[in-house]
């Protein structure tokens, strides 16, 4: 384990960069025991002195005349740069996203442009981002075009269904197996209906227009057709975009799809994750590859825009097997294909089993990108997560005119979100101050059912 000492007031920024190079780094209060040290000296010009393993690196930034928020932003950026450049020289390794550890590189590009900087050269020449990742950001911003714009007075509605038919080995969500939680399903539905109806009524009273609706989870279609109908009856208006993550192919049937269509749903996700049966079995998905083909055709016959998720880096999946999954997904021709990079998160079985991701995930993403571009898909949103294999990214690709507006809104943080259900986070964007206020619902089903009113009140205070 490597220990880091820093007197920088935002130590996790430093720690996050060190973790790009070594998983097993920890912060320490003792400079004497640390192998890596980053110190800040701040006046009108801030200096960052980083040293480790006999090497040193210094970065300087002038913060004179900037407001408090701008100063903090620059100090964080340059402190991270100091340790990143130091660790590049110590290890001889560079990272695809350079010193960036944030979730949203596209948002940062937009922010840099608003600061009057050339974001692309700042990414590549200052922050150490690779040319092909900068190009990816540029392509995404081009696909988003006018969609990358905040609409004041509007919000999107998120509805969380925290049940699944079985647990995938890479999953860290708080969702539970529906058979195990059976006795809570109906009480949860009742609490959720109250939450949705009260949220919509509140939005109407406040003059907030709900534009897009998104049912996520968990797997919303692990509920029965009757239960879905019961919940959707609370939504008595026609959103622009109405999405349901159907997720598991084994949870989809004609009866449920008919309910979705009758309620105005226009997009569903059917997520193979892989087209290799042996890998599906290893990761605990209880469906067959044939189910994916069958349920995809069924969903298309209902006229839905369909997204398919794949994951690069799954256990036992070689590059060639992953390439096969990409080829099969492209051959089916869904409107969207989202390529995730496996992230080993706390709470997942894979993390508990100390699974290590093979070092070829970058090749898998390159293959996806090249072949999806050739097949007419363009990247339209992306995000990064902690613990992601090779510090890569998740990218949503779309055929022309089919991007998921909810995904753009939430990932670029340009839409307010009114969220209902467990583990759902409402967000209000305060554009004038460039900050976001949040209100999180209970993470678990039982607390959510018991303290529903309390969480509703918090949400209303947020949007008051
Ligand atoms: S379907 Fe999604 S939410 Fe459910 S266990 Fe698998 S990864 Fe987790």
Give a short synopsis of this structure.
The protein is an alpha/beta fold.
Structure description:
With 464 residues, this protein is an alpha/beta fold. The protein has two domains: 1-93, Rossmann fold (3-Layer(aba) Sandwich), CATH 3.40.50.10150; 150-457, pyruvate-formate lyase- activating enzyme, CATH 3.80.30.20. It has helices at residues 11-21, 68-91, 105-114, 119-126, 131-144, 182-206, 225-232, 254-262, 277-282, 289-301, 319-332, 349-352, 361-374, 405-411, 445-450, 452-463; strands spanning 2-6, 25-27, 36-42, 45-52, 55-62, 154-161, 163-164, 176-177, 209-217, 241-247, 267-270, 305-312, 336-341, 378-383, 394-398, 416-420, 425-430, 435-440. Iron/sulfur cluster is lined by residues 164, 167-168, 171, 173, 175, 217-219, 247-248. Residues 164, 167-168, 171, 173, 175, 217-219, 247-248 line the site of iron/sulfur cluster.
